[in-house]
Design a protein that fits this description.
The chain has helices spanning 7-16, 24-34, 42-52, 55-63. It has 76 residues and is mainly alpha-helical. It has one domain (7-63). Helix 1 packs across helix 3.
Amino acid sequence: MYHPYGLRDTIMLAKKLPPLEEGGAGWLRALAAMTSGETLSLEDIRELLTQGSSTIECAEVERAPGVFSTADVYSA
């Protein structure tokens, strides 16, 4: 069952992730290791990105895979 991350949880997780400036691959590997066995929603990922990126950078990250205008809808 999906349980959304709270703001405090997101902030604590974001503090443990490497800086995005060091590369997305390392950031994603660390995120995957720290959240293994958990389901993250698009909104959870967006919140994590905003902790270490500007609004423009977040928009660029979302434009590449085509989720820029995707609503955060979780379906189990």
